[in-house]
Design goal:
215 residues; elongated; 6 helices; Phosphate-specific transport system accessory protein PhoU; mainly alpha
């Protein structure tokens, strides 16, 4: 019975890795579409977002089977409940990549060094998502804590974009609509970073039984 349970846990890990890879692809495409807005790339993002939604449902079914068909011990229950929380955050990451795609058409002609910072924010959040999923699969608390700490850099980049846009508006170097779109896009990346932190915190919970928000 335990051997079967362990095989299903392995399946859960594989599916989580796949979902994490989809999130990475969605963020990568959202960074790309800011540089070269095209209908093809926008459609790709929405296709990946739909695939992420389906993967969330697939993983939910695996978790339900683990709970109903097996007799998980406390540590297993923590892992399964953490996985269910994690996929909710990953689904939101896909949604926010889609939100960025919707903004891309308005930003295609915008020339601002904020675009450079948005690229940096995207790359930073990709790494956070990758590491958070890896931390879960490897039960690596240290890597999960590293993800949580990495959010400071994403927040710093958001503040940089915000302050730069304020200066550009003050000096009439950018129109208000473009500035608002850039700021919203930066906010979406910041939220993706927050979701990666949420995932990492659930990883810590799966290992320790203590969630940071409940300490």
């Amino acid at each position: 019975m335990r051997t079967r349970f362990d095989k299903q846990l392995d399946e859960l890990h594989v599916e989580l890795i796949k979902m994490g890879s989809m999130c990475e692809e969605a963020i990568t495409l959202s960074v790309e579409v800011l540089k070269h807005a095209s209908e093809k790339t926008i459609n790709q993002i929405h296709t990946v977002d739909s695939a992420i939604d389906q993967k969330e449902r697939d993983i939910e079914n695996i978790c339900i089977k683990l709970l109903l068909q097996q007799q998980p011990v406390a540590s297993d229950l923590r892992m399964i409940s953490a996985a269910l929380k994690m996929i909710s955050d990953m689904e939101r990451i896909g949604d926010q990549a889609g939100d960025i795609a919707e903004m891309a058409a308005y930003l295609s002609d915008t020339e601002s060094s904020s675009m450079v910072h948005l690229d940096s924010m995207g790359k930073a959040t990709i790494k956070m998502v990758t590491n958070s999923v890896e931390a879960f699969v490897q039960s690596d608390r240290q890597l999960a804590e590293k993800v949580i700490d990495a959010d400071d850099e994403v927040d710093r980049l958001f503040d940089t974009v915000k302050n730069e846009l304020m200066d550009l508006i003050y000096n009439k170097g950018i129109d208000a609509r473009a500035a608002l779109d850039l700021l919203m896009t930066a906010k979406y990346f910041e939220r993706i970073g927050d979701h990666a932190v949420n995932i990492a915190e659930w990883v810590v919970y799966s290992i320790t039984g203590v969630h940071k928000s409940h300490e």
